[in-house]
Design goal:
nucleotide-binding, binds magnesium ion, globular, eight-stranded mixed beta sheet, binds 1,4-dihydronicotinamide adenine dinucleotide, seven-stranded mixed beta sheet, NAD(P)-bd_dom_sf, binds pyruvic acid, alpha/beta, 2 domains, Rossmann fold, single chain, Ala_DH
């Protein structure tokens, strides 16, 4: 198969979809890999690293989209890329369709085959291609939150761990999945007083077993959230209903009950966000302020640590890319249930229920397009 890897053009997105090691593996199996010149620079990979691995370099994004049967990307295509995508071209990347009707309609109109990293799902319901970036974003959410709690950034002016004689800051984490767990580990390691909320009692039991003593668990419901937000310094949104729009757990009226300088990091922003006041921001201008509550809502947090993230992402995506390259998307998705669950929009049809529901579009089972 001919695989194309363009340079990411989203704001401050320095990841690339494939490391030289990943390219080498695809080439070794007989595939042709084209990398857009300079695409790896942000992650510390030079064009020569790719050519030494057997990949070929193309000068422009148009060249890459023009030649590839499968495009491997990191972030969803953004508007300048829409016109470059061809009918039947396989796009293997994060899409987060439920948060963008415009993107969904554009991919319906162009007849491409959209396999979304974030909905590839194993039998145990885990999301193997979301996990590595959730690990990164979860860990980052605490370092970003800690920074914006500093007074010069508009925060309340508390140190997460406190010091002897001064109590630590309080960190509330909504959702105890991958992002929430990694955030809790980081915040707890810094000495904060941490609470994780989830609706899954079995998950809360597990977290209670493995977490250190400065992490408590609590049931997620409107009553508890309303009560807790009044006294917490850092609130991290980390919920997910796979493929669907995130539930709005913190409503606008709750902001007035918070302390001025409270920081809220909505990691779930890529699925529309779990705070009513969330609007996607970029690394160039990551925060905004409503009712003296600082909102950090960057939809591509791992893009800020591209070296770590690019390697972590390729580690997870490569086995699936190899299946698609070797068998073609139809056979690969016929053979593999996890990969079939990644199908979201195929040849003009929405084949993922959460996406169809988000925009009231007709839904067809993925099996009908295989
Ligand atoms: N902004 C960014 O750069 C990034 C964002 N993400 C996003 O972070 C979000 C979380 O991802 P993961 O941790 O991997 O998901 P996950 O599936 O591992 O965990 C989600 C958790 O949310 C819980 N949950 C669902 N509804 C809830 C509610 N009403 N209250 C409390 N908990 C609830 C679930 O029970 C589950 O434990 C996703 O939207 C994901 O796309 C992930 C990576 C990067
Ligand atoms: C998961 C995601 O949206 C990201 O890594 O940017
Ligand atoms: Mg207030």
């Amino acid at each position: 198969m001919i695989i194309g890897v363009p340079t990411e053009i989203k704001n401050n997105e320095n990841r690339i979809a494939l490391t030289p090691a990943g390219a080498a593996e695809l080439v070794k199996r007989g595939h042709v890999v084209y990398i857009q010149s300079g695409g790896g620079n942000g992650s510390g990979f030079k064009d020569e690293d790719y050519t030494e691995a057997g990949a070929k370099i193309l000068p422009t994004i148009e060249d890459v989209y023009g030649i590839a049967e499968m495009i491997m990307k990191v972030k969803e295509p953004i508007e300048p890329e829409y016109k470059l995508i061809k009918k039947n071209q396989v796009l293997f990347t994060y899409f987060h369709f439920a948060s963008s009707e415009k993107l969904t309609k554009a991919m319906i109109d162009n007849g491409s085959v959209c396999i979304a990293y974030e909905t590839v799902e194993l039998d145990d319901r885990s999301l193997p291609l979301l996990v590595p970036m959730s690990e990164v974003a979860g860990r980052m959410s605490v370092q970003e939150g800690a920074k914006f709690l500093e007074k010069t950034f508009g925060g309340y002016g508390v140190l997460l761990g406190g010091v002897p004689g001064v109590p630590p800051a309080k960190v509330l984490i909504l959702g105890g999945g991958i992002v929430g767990t990694e955030a809790a580990k980081m915040a707890a390691g810094l000495g904060a007083d941490v609470t994780i909320m989830d609706i899954n009692l079995k998950r809360l039991r597990y977290l209670d077993d493995i977490m250190p003593a400065n992490v408590k668990t609590s049931m997620s419901n409107d009553y508890n959230i309303r009560d807790y937000v009044k006294t917490y310094d850092l609130i991290i949104g980390a919920v997910l209903i796979p493929g669907a729009k995130a539930p709005r757990l913190i409503t606008r009226d709750m902001l007035k009950t918070m302390r001025p300088g409270t920081v809220m990091v909505d990691v779930a922003v890529d699925q529309g966000g779990c705070f009513e006041t969330t609007k996607a921001t970029t690394h160039a201008d990551p925060t905004f302020n409503i009712d003296d509550v600082i909102h950090y809502c960057v939809a591509n947090m791992p893009g800020a640590v591209p070296r770590t993230s690019t390697i972590a992402l390729t580690n997870a995506t490569l086995p699936y890319a190899l299946q698609i390259a070797e068998k073609g998307w139809k056979q690969a998705c016929t053979n593999s249930i996890p990969l079939r669950k990644g199908l979201n929009v195929v040849n003009g049809k929405v084949v993922y229920q959460g996406v169809a529901e988000a925009f009231g579009l007709p839904f067809e089972k993925a099996e009908t397009v295989l």
